[in-house]
Amino acid sequence: MARLTSWIARGLWGWLRRNADVRAGTRAARRFAAYGPGTSIAFPTATVFGEPWIALGAHTLIGADITLSAGMLPGMDLGPEPLVRIGDGCTIGRGSHVVAHCSVEIGDHVFTGPYVYITDQNHVYSDPHTPVGLQWPQDAPVRIGSGTWIGANAVVLPGVRLGRNCVVAAGTVVRPGEYADHSVIAGVPGRVVRRYDEDAGWEPPLRPDAGGSHPARRGCPGLAPPPDRGAPGTRAD
């Protein structure tokens, strides 16, 4: 009986994982301020509330165990405009948190690894006589530019404004401030370790094998490079 129960439970769980995601056009999707075609929130979710103030673009994939929230508590009236905006073609990794109280804006084609934390609110500790958790928090809008990649376990703090096509290394804590397009940020606390200049290129320069060539030419075992077809008009036997 125990084996049968386990088999049924695993089968049901697998079916739910494949079929219980929130898809465009469903009743759950209609609770959101916007929910673009092709967008999906995987099952199971961790915490999702404030849907009327969350706008999701088209063809965006949000992983399982996600926390996606607008406001302090469910049922609050947060005004006429969405507090969370996630653009088109994004992928938000499983177990991540996007927590908004004033504004979190994520552009198009932003990709994150798992367990990324993005928030526009933080606790303060200015009053030494009051527990930190009881002091009124501070808010600052967050903006993540289109084309950005954020690695696993990174934290994006209130007041961060990332430009286009930035890279945030895994485990980085991104401090408040403005980061130019094509910045590479790493460390705790995070700092810009590489940037792109239109005239000088990447500073410091990229390694010769870091330019996006075929995996086999970067030392990946088991992957052969594409065959050399020769110059146009010639034959490679």
TrEMBL record:
Annotated source species: Nocardiopsis endophytica
GO MF annotation list: acyltransferase activity
Family: Belongs to the transferase hexapeptide repeat family.
Full protein name: Acyltransferase
Annotated signal sequence range: none
InterPro entries hit by this protein: Hexapep (IPR001451), Hexapeptide_acetyltransf (IPR051159), Trimer_LpxA-like_sf (IPR011004)
UniProt cross-references to Pfam families, sorted A to Z: Hexapep, Hexapep_2
Keyword annotations: Acyltransferase, Transferase
Region (Disordered): 200-237
